Amino acid sequence: MSNSKSFSRRNFIAGAGLLVAGATLRVKGAGFSGWDDEPIIDIHQHTDYAGRTNAELFAHQKTMGVTNTILLPAGHDINYGSTNYGFSNGLQVHATSNEACYKIAQERPKEYMFGANEVPDVPNAIKEIEKYLKLGAPIIGESKFNVECDSPEMQDIYQLAQQYKVPVLMHFQYKIYNRGFERMYTMLEKYPKVNFIAHAQTWWAHIDKNYPNQNILYPTGKVTPGGLTDQLLSKYSNIWGDVSGGSGLRAMTRDEDFYKDFMTRHQDRLLYGSDCDDKVGTGKACTGWQAIQQIKKLAASKEIERKILYHNAKKLMRLDV
């Protein structure tokens, strides 16, 4: 854990703005026709996702109608248990490094921002993450590693997040990524000043109180209210839900009556992300586009829709977009 003195990200960026002007968070909109009235922040995308080129990524985001995108990097490739001995390198989707995301944000500062990430139990993990937080990363993640969610290494990351006042985005997947989801409440209590963004199969499957088999990552059918996910969002103010990916879309479509109420109750702590690897950006091929349509369909008001697609992310990460 770094011993550097805690200070505000905003103050740091203000002081170092001339050095990193291309990568700061002062994004004023992409300027594409029809977008400025209803901007969308995508908190969850990846570079080189399943072999997609940068040009294809840019076109994909534009087609979806996304105005601002946060690129979530992978840690270094390494043959560790935390990366399932290399199987999960690149976040298991060939996502690329901190530097790759940072470079795009420098080149296209009006549209792209970058996260900060590293395999939590490698030497100098905190130093690597801190390097990109100092450059202006508004988020740590995507943390998608085969470790316990309350392990000492992850707690070092939570402490860093607290120091820099940034959220941590975590991929919860039973027995493989951020294990011990049932204990996550202890981290919410231990680090009340840290905002945790939860994502993926185990998080979204647990909207259902009657979720008997955690090996089933994509449950179907009607949802019984009162699941662990719902409980965490109701009890703790420092946990947020990332609606991205197939798991997030499945949660929105399996029981629309339940999810409409769920969205209303948790409207202030749901965040839009795409996390899709297609090259189309629309229609049934694109889960990110489908998620936008579901949010618009199920939101009980325009205010709720805009919170999830834009305002919540802007507020949480203090983005000037």
Automatic annotation (TrEMBL):
PROSITE patterns: TAT. InterPro entries: Amidohydro-rel (IPR006680), Metal_Hydrolase (IPR032466), TAT_signal (IPR006311). Residues 41-318 form the Amidohydrolase-related domain. This is Amidohydrolase family protein. It comes from Mucilaginibacter boryungensis.
